């Protein structure tokens, strides 16, 4: 049962916990992931030996509460930027061993997964640029290594680096900790030649203003690493 309102995610995984401990337990899921529920909503039922149910209870509730917290935080941001054209995306700031589940929870909350690891996209950050000398050289080196089919994104914290990033062939340019005013100028200068992503210091209070600058997506690390758990309980 949900003790507070929020967006549900991870219910199937939570119920699976009981089966892994005791295959004779019977579970029923009554709410689909992605559903926003009110406090007091029954999410599912579990039938079986009391000892088995109580043994699995904490792992199941921790899983469900955490993942639903991720989905709820994501849903709040998605709702706040509705109508702007921007998308909320996650990052690789996930809990070890739980990345697939946490990213599933982001999708349940209406967000989009940025990338799963180092293998499916390239994100060039400040240390990479410092290691090779320039934004353009970092992009050229990455493209030479991964080819044309893999997305190459570069992080910049100065508007002056935007043009060189675009000319070097970046698919996405990440605007790191820029003010909304600078983001708006970046959108104007880019003129649709690449995707623009805002990141750094995104909160519930400023996310709408960031989205209204015209950026394509907004990446938020705290929705996976710091989202408060949804209050859920198992009652006999």
Q: Can you describe what's shown?
A:
With 236 residues, the protein is α/β, with parallel strands linked by helices. The protein has 2 domains: 6-78, Alpha-Beta Complex (Aldehyde Oxidoreductase, domain 3), CATH 3.90.1170; 81-225, Alpha-Beta Barrel (TIM Barrel). It contains 9 helices and 10 strands. The strands form 3 sheets. The chain has a 6-stranded parallel beta sheet. A two-stranded antiparallel ribbon has the order 1-3. It has a two-stranded antiparallel sheet with strand order 2-4. Helix 8 links the parallel strand 9 and strand 10. Helix 1 packs antiparallel against helix 2 (50-80) and helix 2 crosses helix 3 (99-108). It is elongated and about 65 Å long. It starts with 5 loop residues before the first strand and ends in an 11-residue tail after the last helix. The model has no long low-confidence stretch (mean pLDDT 97).
Describe the structure concisely.
With about 240 residues, this protein is α/β, with parallel strands linked by helices.
Helix content: 40-55%
Tell me the CATH architecture of the largest domain: Alpha-Beta Barrel
Please provide the count of β strands: 10
Q: How many helical stretches? A: 9
CATH H level, superfamily name of the largest domain:
Aldolase class I
Largest sheet: 6 strands, parallel
How many structural domains? Answer: 2
Describe the strand arrangement of the main beta sheet, using strand numbers: 5-10-9-8-7-6
C-alpha termini separation: 11 Å
């Amino acid at each position: 049962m949900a003790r507070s309102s929020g967006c549900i995610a991870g219910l199937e995984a939570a119920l699976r916990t009981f089966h892994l401990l005791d295959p004779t337990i019977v579970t029923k899921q009554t709410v689909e992931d992605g559903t926003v529920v009110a406090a007091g909503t029954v999410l599912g039922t579990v039938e079986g030996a009391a000892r088995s149910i109580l043994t699995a209870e904490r792992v199941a509730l921790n899983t469900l509460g955490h993942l639903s917290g991720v989905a709820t935080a994501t849903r709040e941001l998605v709702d706040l930027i509705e109508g702007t054209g921007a998308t909320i995306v996650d990052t690789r700031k996930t809990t070890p061993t739980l990345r697939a589940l946490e990213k599933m929870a982001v999708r349940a909350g209406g967000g989009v997964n940025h990338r799963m690891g180092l293998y499916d996209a390239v994100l060039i950050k400040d240390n990479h640029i410092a290691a090779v000398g320039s934004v353009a050289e970092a992009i050229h080196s990455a493209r030479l290594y991964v080819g044309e089919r893999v997305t190459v994104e570069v992080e910049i914290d100065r508007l002056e680096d935007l043009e060189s990033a675009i000319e070097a062939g970046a698919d996405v340019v990440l605007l790191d900790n820029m003010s909304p005013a600078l983001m708006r100028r970046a959108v104007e200068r880019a003129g649709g030649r690449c995707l623009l992503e805002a990141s750094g210091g995104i909160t519930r209070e400023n996310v709408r203003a960031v989205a209204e600058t015209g950026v394509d997506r907004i990446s938020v690390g705290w929705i996976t690493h710091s989202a408060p758990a949804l209050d859920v309980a198992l009652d006999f």
